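Researcher: I'd like a structural prediction for the single chain below. Treat it as a standalone chain; there are no partners to consider.
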Amino acid sequence: MLSFSNFIQGQWAGTDSVIKICNKDADVSNRNFDLFTELGGAPTTGGTWSTTNPSNFNALSQNSGIVDLWRINNYGVHVFNYNNTACNQTAIVTINLGSYPGEDACSEEDHEWNRRCEFLVVGWDYDSKKP
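Model: Treating it as a single chain, here is the predicted structure.
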């Protein structure tokens, strides 16, 4: 008996995700924020990115999905769509963006978490404020 198996890897846009970034200007990596890595599941590369918010047009690279969060000059909800034309599917990355000078969309709990992380990065104990 002879048997053949074909494994076909399907094209997929991934699943939607929602993330919160509070201190965008404090982290230089937000200049090259990779939206593709924020998609859930196992999305297939090769699609294109878009946004309907005119203030995001110049910050987004439609081919790579890299967005320069420093170029987005307003806080709040920012929606980016990933369209995989090979399978005609779309997934959405929603960023709740805060920490634009003079405006903030993040809660005090978010700021507390960020302050604790900053102390960890420099090797200090948050509670004692000492190394």
